[in-house]
Structures are given as C-alpha cells and as structure tokens.
Amino acid sequence: MNSLLRLLVRLLFRFRAFNEGALNTPGPVLLIPNHTSWLDWLFVGVCLDDSWKFVTSATTAEQSWLHRFVMRNRRTFPIDNASPYAVKHMAEFLSKGGKLVLFAEGRLSRTGTLMKLFDGTGFLIHKTHAKVITAYLRGASRLPFSPNHGWKRCFPTVTAHFSDALSAPHQEHLSTAQSRSLFTRWLRDQMVRQQFDTEMAFGPMSLPAAIAETAAAQPGKVILEDATLTELTYRKLFIGAKLMGDRLAPQCSGAPRVGVMLPNVNATPVVLLALWQLGKVPAILNFSTGTPTMLACAELAGLKHIITSRAFLKRFKLDPAPFEQAGLKLLYLEDLRATISSVARILALASSYFPQSPSPFADSLGTAVILFTSGSEGIPKGVELSHRNLLANTRQMLAICDLRDDERFFNAMPMFHSFGLLAGTILPLVRGNYIFIYPSPLHYRVVPTVFYDKDCTVLFGTNTFLGGYGRKAHPYDFRSLRYLFAGAEKLQSATAELWAQKFGVRILEGYGATECSPCLSATTPLEPNHGTAGRFLPGIEWKLEPVDGVADAGRLFVRGPNIMKGYLNADANAKFHSGGGWYDTGDIVSVDAEGFVSIRGRMKRFAKISGEMVSLTAVEDALAGAFPHYGLRMATAVVTRPDEDKGEALVCCTNEPKLTLAEIRDAIKAKGLGNLCIPREIALVKEIPKLGTGKVNHRELQTMVQNSK
Questions:
Q1: How far apart are the C-alpha atoms of 665 and 663, rounded to whole Å?
Q2: Which residue ranges form the domains of the chain, and what is each CATH number?
C-alpha cells in the first residue's frame, strides 16, 4: 500500500524525499514536520515504515467517518487534546522505544509559514530524551488543501526534507519549566534553520531567476505601484525589463558595471532587472550625498555610464554637467523609452506568454549590486553584494517572519540604501508581495495618508522617520499595519512608546549593516523583546571580542552566506579578506542567554572617560523625547571633545537655545545612567545634520563643534 501511495504522489506532485535514511533511527524518536496542508500526513507517511505512529486528535477523529478512517488506525496514536495526561501518554510510549510523528504547531498554518510550537513538545523532549528529526515539506502550502489565503495549484511540486537525528541540549540544573521553554525554542530554531538551508539548496540561484519563478505562478498580479499611481504586474515588469535591456545593451557593451541614479519609482526595479538580465552589475548611487561624493563613488566603481532621468535631475536640482565633465555618459530614461517602437512592445508582450530562457547571469556568487556605505564616520566604501548574499538575507527573513501572500509593502526607504533595496524591494518581489514605492521618507504627513489609502500592511523605516510619521499621522492611518520594522539606527524608547500608545502598534527592531545585505538580527511577533534587536537570523555565526573598559559586552564579528563578497576599496577589502570571512561590524553588543542581541553602540561612538567606556548612543537614547515641552522640532545629538583631566568630555548638540545642562542631567539620571554619561557642555546648532537615510551625520556634526571652538 505504501509503495502504491508513493508512486501516486510521485506522479501527481513530482514528490521526492531527501535524507530518508535518518528515519531508520531507533526509538525513542520524534519526527516534527511543518504543517501547511491536509495532505501533509500523506507526504510524510509514504516515507515511513510501520514502526512509526502519527499523533492525532481523538476529538477531531469523531467528526465524520472519513476523519475516523484517517485518524484512528494502526498507524496513529490518538490523544485527547483537552486531557492533562495526553503528553504523559506520549512520553510513556516514547520511553518504551516508540517513534512518533507530531505536528508541533498543533494546527494548520494560516500563513503558509511556520507558526508557534506548543511547548508540550519541549516537555516530551525533556522527559524522554528522545532524538528529534525535523521535516520541511516544501511546496505543500500551495495545495488547495492548505488553509492559507495565498495562490494555489492543484498539483504543485512537493518535496520532503528530513534532518539528521538531533539530540537536544539537555542541562540537568534547569527546572522542568525552564527545560520545556529551552527545548521548544531549540526545536523552532532547528526548523527555521532547516527551512532556510533547504531554500538555499533547492531555490533559484540568482535574483532574476528567483523573481521569475514567483512571477510564473501569478503573472497578472499587480506587484509595483509608485506615486504616479501607475501599476505594474509581474508580466509588465518583465516586459519593461526586456525592452529596457534591449535599449541598454548596445549603450553599455563592454561595461561590466553601470551606475543607477534614480529615486523610488517603478522604473528603478525595472532598470535593475534589465541590468541583471544583461549580466551587468548595477552600482546604485546615493544622490543625497551630493555630486562630489557621487563622482568619487563612480570613480571607485569604475563607472562609464549612469542611468538617470531628466525629470529626476530637475526635481532634485542636480546638475548633469559635472558628471559629463568627469567622462560619465548619462543615459536618460526618457530617451531610452522614446526609442521603443510599437512593434517592439507587441513582440515583447507576445514573448511574455511563452517560457523564457534562463537568465545568462546565473552565477550565484557573482556580484548582484554595488552599494555605498553612508559615510557617517568617513568616506563611503563600495560594497559588493552577490546574488547569493541578497537571496540568503531574503530567505533568512522569510524563515522567521509569517508573511502572507496578501501582504502589501510600503517602501519609502531609498533603494540606494540596503534597507530599502533588500527589505523594501527585493524581498517582496521574491516573495510575491505588492509594493507601493514612495519617493521620499521625509514627507511625514503624506506617507501615513498614502499608507492608509493603499491598505498597506508592512512598513519599514529608521527611528528618525518613524518618529516623524508617528507625530504627524492620524491615529487611524495605520489601521491595516501588521509588520512595522525599524532599522539602520537604534530604535529610541520614545518612538516605540509613541507608536504603542497612539496606534497600538509594536515596532520590531532589526540590526544589520550594508555589508551584511543588510539584516543580522530582528525581533518578530513570535519572539518580541523590546529594547533588543532580536536574535540572529538562521545561518549566521557570531563571536564577541573583548573591549577594554567594557565588562559585559564585546565587539561583534559575524560570518554567514549574507556577508558581502568584499569592498571595492583595496585597503578595506584586503583587511576584510584577511579575517577568514569574518566581518567586523565595529559595534559593541551583548548577547543574553536566550540569544537576544543588545546594541551598545559603535566602537567609534564610545568615549573613554576616566578610563571607562561610555556609549554615546545610550546617552542620545536617554535624551530623545525627554523634553516634550520644547516641541517636536527640538533635536539632540552627542559628540565628544578632548579633555585634559578625563580624556574626553561629552558635548550635547541641540537646536533648542533654551535647553539647560540641569535638564540634561535630570534626563540622564532618570534613565539610570551614571555621572560619566552626563554632557559637560551644550553646543547650539541651527540644525542637526542628517544623512539621506535619516541617520545623524555625526562626522559633520563633530566638525561643526570643532570649528565653533
């Protein structure tokens, strides 16, 4: 019978199983699959011999004759879910060398992704010391028998991936309750890591291939919309990329890298996809840094061409002359579009209905994009991110977030920033989610209104931008919001409290760097921990090196598939590669027993006062929102100056002339910080300088303070 069923699922679903040898592990052993469809038992069952039993609900089994047939037989282990003895009965069976299949989520996933695990599973592992095999059923969420609201197909490809037999990390000194929690978290970590590893091994290897795979399932879905309210379906996206690529090919022949200087509009992802399909590497220029910095970045990347728009240059008051004088050829979108004939459009439309040949750019290790660091502490560095880097970070995020097919992303973060490019553009394009692209994150009144009008559910931003939206928005503007991520700078308590009180929304904080594609850790609804930046994503190794003067934290080094290929800057690149793949984040962090990361600040943003290390970031966080009586425009930031007696002294920079040192001292003490954290003087500035990403430009601010002396 099993052989017949195996043949049936092979024919209908092209079913294959991997690492089935692990299933021969002698009991006691638990097999824990993810649970996305009513046929999951079939895909797992055809791989098992008669020694295995499925844990089923005795109550559900009585609903009909069909339920009884499936859930009460020699291959099942029915339990009463409401009985406190249910887990005890399973533990007794396992203790006798039993082998159980348990869907630890306890219900079918409503999102198509891994939901919470019931901690009774952790108790079983604790009591029986059973081996654990996890299983990832890939593709089953697309069956019509799956209750999530995503797209479905009658006969999708389904594969089963079994882990090796695993031993949980038993610690005898822990109580039963502590062990239950520990093992449940450990089990979830194993399942998340297995999903990530499987997708990396069996998913598409390049960005255009990954986007094309999703597009093939729903070519008519509206995937992009910008401020002009122009909508693009997946089909139109690929038609536009083909037409654009045909025009760019003769213009950029012989140039491996092509500059992109465009705002957040539909044309930007179209251009990126066109360049990828041509085998070119887009170098995205940060136009907020100014023309001299962009020219330095173009020279660093060896650019000869820059794709831009006349309308964009006019709107942002950028003069094309310096670029042309530097020998750069500007390719204007308006001119390229004008050369597209009606015949070419018709042919591109017709070809979109036929299977496309694979992209010539299939090397997962090849550079996908060049981004430039913000330059907040020095000149920008050119960061090479490969297709594998960006796909790894996308899949890492998807493994920990229960994103649904019907999510609607709102992306106002500029695509020259890794946050806006990966989280706001690439991830939803690969996942199959609608994106509304907005040209500026600084429109604090407009962004909430458009978000409300478009019924979006996912929003990204820096602390600065989220604080601006929170102050200006109507309390009902974010009624549809499901996921709110903060990144790129430390989330301040005042911002988190504002969103919680005004909108009833919890901000999820992430942490990362451009060099990491960018995300390294994040809090989620399943694992929230306010005040931390969450736990490390699957597949990331980390270590802390001691820092003189810091007792309970260290300098963070990370390694993993999302870490960059390297820098364009020769010295920085040589230093990176000499570290054996470890990237020095330059941040001082602590990691608690549960794996939650707390960011103390950048190494360069610590002051050494009387031999002690003081985090300037912590001082800024204490001052943020501490003076509401001065109004919303009031801002503070902290820098240092040399001090003969104590080594360094803190300087509070502000645009509020009435702010006093006494008020600053009270705010610092109210946050529980010591006397060393109190600034000794105030520097009045007209405005706190900011980068295009919303971060404070501490380098410029430090220069302003030094020049004022």
A1: 5
A2: 2-202 (3.40.1130.10), 610-708 (3.30.300.30)
